[in-house]
Amino acid sequence: GNSVTQMEGPVTLSEEAFLTINCTYTATGYPSLFWYVQYPGEGLQLLLKATKADDKGSNKGFEATYRKETTSFHLEKGSVQVSDSAVYFCALKGNTDKLIFGTGTRLQVFP
Amino acid sequence: GAGVSQSPRYKVAKRGQDVALRCDPISGHVSLFWYQQALGQGPEFLTYFQNEAQLDKSGLPSDRFFAERPEGSVSTLKIQRTQQEDSAVYLCASNPDRGFGETQYFGPGTRLLVL
Prior knowledge:
By secondary structure, chain A is mostly beta strands. Chain A contains no helices and twelve strands.
């Protein structure tokens, strides 16, 4: 069945460092891919999405490219801020309406 | 406009008690989803409604879990005879309509602790 695997955390970075959080997926057909973020004490928010191969989703300086050949959707940001500290979830939506999430990666950014 | 709201935000139940969790989706949203998020894990799908019709309940872990959306807006997730393993955050999400790639908007969740 469909599944998402993302790197375990926590990821600990200094402010202005480069961020990569890896995400790979297994799915039949052509899923849509998402990154959701959960800030401390808040609910899940959509960060970015991509609906077909080679699409790049971007928002708030974060980017992820839908790579069908490597079944990946890695999240990147060139220069992280303390305010980016949160838990990041990679997710896919296949030919049903439900989202399938990875286990989440906690990012901690220190000044 | 208002987002997805859930109540209560926190619920403590004794093992064996019944609980009811409420979700108010964004007004006009056709689809409504329930997810269960255990500590340190990603959300896991429980059930899905399109208007008042429950189209998928494959994620409900046992027959103690029951969800309804009788008028196609507010939804209630009921858990009967709660067990300690039911302790989790229960998330509700809605989206405007069925559609490939449609964004789901999440509520803040109800944190359930079963003692």
